[in-house]
Amino acid sequence: MDKFTLFVLIFALVSNILPKSEAQTAPRCPVEGDAETCDLPDCRCSSTSIPGGLDRSETPQIVLFSFDSAVNVNNYPMYIDLLEGRKNPNGADISVTFFVSHEYNDYNLTHQLYRLGHEIGLNSITRSSSTDYWRSLNESMWTAEIVDQREQMALLANISSADIKGMRAPQLQIGGDTMYSALYNGMITWESSRPTWNMRQPGLWPYTNDYLSNQDCQIAPCPTGEYPGFWTVPMIDLIGSDFSPCPLVDQCNPRPTTAEATFLLLRSNFLDQYLGNRAPFGVFSTSAFLQGSLPEFEARREGYKLFLDFLATMTDVHVVSISKALEWIKAPVAWTEIDDFVPWQPEGVHENYCNLPRSCRYDFQGSERYMMACTLSCPPQYPWLFNPLGQNI
Ligand SMILES: *[C@@H]1O[C@H](CO)[C@@H](O)[C@H](O)[C@H]1NC(C)=O
Ligand SMILES: *[C@@H]1O[C@H](CO)[C@@H](O)[C@H](O)[C@H]1NC(C)=O
After folding, report:
1. Measuring from atom 13 of ligand 1, which residue has the nearest CA?
2. Is 214 exposed, middle or buried (0-12, 13-18, 19+ CB in 10 A)?
3. What is the pLDDT of residue 348?
4. Are 156 and 374 spatial neighbours (Cβ–Cβ below 8 Å)?
5. Which band of pLDDT confidence, cut at 50, 70 and 90, is reported for residue 137?
């Protein structure tokens, strides 16, 4: 063995021993005086500073509502009842984000929510309840679950795929760099699954992943790689009355069972941001938190309405979808100028491009599936992983 071969062998050994992620760890955020800079609209370091250097009194308080899980005849009327007819201070309808999962989803109703100006985000095809599944998923499986779901959603709900931009991981179980690479390579532009407890007050604003984030890692594995222009929308933890953190309102302890308790929980957490650095305040829940026949579900819905009524009394508070919030963060303007801010202007109801939905029936894995789809005919197979459009015969 000559010296060169020995060198190559040792090099190969050493480079295999070094952790692979080491090589691709994102650089630290540039500071003043560095040659590199990170500037809006494309780049923002993870921080609690208000975008555009605005003062907190000039900053509109953004409130993000989101609902995870399938949209169907059980929860659609509740969403309409909760959201219909509510306006932001500029006269535009409020908008929220639905993280939709495929199983038992009604694509006609999904289309109707989209038409009303709400955002449709991705919550996976299988929505597996196993956190182990999501934690150890490889990149091609993340692509099949999320990136392929965008094409599935675009087809079955007849929505432009360009309007489907973001995702939330089921059970908030992200997959670190494996997941981030899949989303980044799949042209998804943001994700919102990472709770923060340490950066709650003042609150952590959404940031891009050009540089290493300083966000706490509440649910490992967290990404450390470089994903230029890809946004993380942190889930700032709420605090339940037992003082423990709850990224989803569902997880607050004790679970509120009256309208009053629900309202007070939301209001006190809202004020932590509103009276602080006005980082977007998230009211994130699954539909299961509000949907059920027991009186406590009705009470929570009433509590949400009381909270929305309360927000409507403030001229500097806007309820917008996550993608609309990101438009503001990219190009921040004072709330007094918001009437001229194009991305938040009133849109009205879009045309119905799901006039004749198909009711499709399938035998799938030993049971039946019914699916409402906005397609001209039913896909020949039940749409699923590796066959997201149901076209493979
Ligand atoms: C599609 O959804 C709309 C809105 O709820 C509803 O009026 C319509 O009946 C639905 N179509 C079918 C075929 O279910
Ligand atoms: C990813 O995981 C799936 C399911 O476990 C497996 O079939 C596939 O071969 C894996 N892909 C790679 C590139 O490892």
Report:
1. 357
2. middle
3. 83
4. yes
5. very high
Q: Is the CB of 357 under 6 A from ligand 1?
A: yes
Which residues have C-beta within 8 Å of that of residue 172, sequence separation ≥ 6? 193, 194, 195, 219, 235, 247, 248
For residue 161, give every residue at least 6 positions away whose Cβ sits within 8 Å of its Cβ, in sequence order, or none.
150, 151, 153, 154
343: tokens are 């991305």
Any idea which residue has 């992983």 for tokens? 385
Q: Tell me, using a 6 A CB cutoff, whether residue 136 lines ligand 2.
A: no
Please tell me the predicted confidence (pLDDT) of residue 393: 66
**Token reading at 157:** 């709900």
Q: What percent of the chain has pLDDT over 90?
A: 92
Query: Do 24 and 182 contact (CB within 8 A), yes or no?
Result: no
Question: 366 CB contacts (<8 Å, ≥6 apart)?
Answer: none
Q: State which ligand 2 atom lies nearest to the alpha carbon of 137.
A: 2
Q: What is the pLDDT of residues 21-42, one digit of tens each?
A: 444 799 999 998 999 999 999 9
Largest CA distance in the chain: 80
Considering the entire predicted model, what is its pTM?
Answer: 0.94
Domains of the chain (ranges, CATH numbers): 39-343+353-373 (3.20.20.370)
CA of 375 to the centre of ligand 1 (A): 14
Entry field: residues in the chain: 393
